[in-house]
């Protein structure tokens, strides 16, 4: 099979994406800043920073710390709120020519539903909603992906509020992510994205203080890739909806590992910080890697892992 003939399109529920490479929320700003330098219209989709109902000032600095092979962050969902997003960011985002997935977080199921209602009114320019059920950096009941019944409850409220595809973004900081995935699907999730960051900590022993202003933070980057792969594989065995892989993806080998393990698409996160064009480069490299397996389409290799117990 020649690389030029490989079909890169994938389906996430009713969504047809030109390829499976997406930009992850929180790592590409509001995308149009990046679009000045990177041809984002070549990607499968983009997901701007989480939006909440009210503006949030975020956590005290320092908010990021580099670790041996990953990035620790505790931003605290800093954003200007849904009104500002709809008035100022959306008009620019909607001209980029790439499917837009809006990521939202609420303090309660009702807030998630209200956010979905607001976005449903602009459904003509939004491809899907990603529900951030899993930010590790905010206090006050925002992590809804730690108990199946909470996850299902949020999904049910949101499903009633919008006809848009719903992607439930899950945390790895649980005992059984498969059970949480099943609850999300039961509640009406179109797809699941996994994983959000792994809860971690960095310590300045000389000052006897945590390095992050908030104390704890979420670890991303290459360090978490094996955890993410394990979660994606477990989820794919437990649910029938598509799973979108996230976690330390920076090379075409990483992309292929997630696809073979079962991910229908992947999100590029931390890698964009040190190589803004990383995701587009991966789109260029994908046909060659798929052809190397003798396949004619990305869909043929999704979940083709031969796993022996
Ligand atoms: C943050 O804003 O603290 C990170 C967002 C997330 O991990 O969901």
The gist of it:
This protein has helices spanning 32-35, 81-93, 109-120, 148-161, 177-187, 225-238, 252-261, 271-274, 278-292, 298-301, and strands spanning 10-12, 15-17, 21-23, 45-46, 64-67, 70-73, 101-104, 128-132, 166-170, 191-194, 198-201, 203-204, 209-210, 216-220, 243-246, 265-268. It is an alpha/beta fold and 309 residues long. The mean pLDDT is 96.
Structure description:
- The protein is α/β, with parallel strands linked by helices.
- The chain has a single domain (3-57, 76-199, 221-301), classed as Alpha-Beta Barrel (TIM Barrel).
- Helix content is 33%, strand content 19%.
- The mean pLDDT is 96.
- Succinic acid binds at residues 26, 50, 73-77, 132, 135-137, 196-197, 218.
Class from secondary-structure proportions: alpha/beta
Distance between the termini: 32 Å
Total domains:
1
Order of strands across the widest beta sheet?
Answer: 4-3-16-15-10-9-8-7
- Share of helical residues: 25-40%
Number of strands: 16
The CATH architecture would be Alpha-Beta Barrel
CATH superfamily: Aldolase class I
Report the C-alpha radius of gyration, rounded: 18 Å
Q: Note the beta-strand portion.
A: 15-25%
Poorly predicted regions are none
- Name the CATH class: Alpha Beta
Shape: globular
Task: List the total number of helices.
Answer: 10
Strand-and-helix sequence, N→C?
EEEHEEEHEHEHEHEEEEEHEHEHHH
Q: Which ions, cofactors or small ligands are bound in this entry?
A: succinic acid
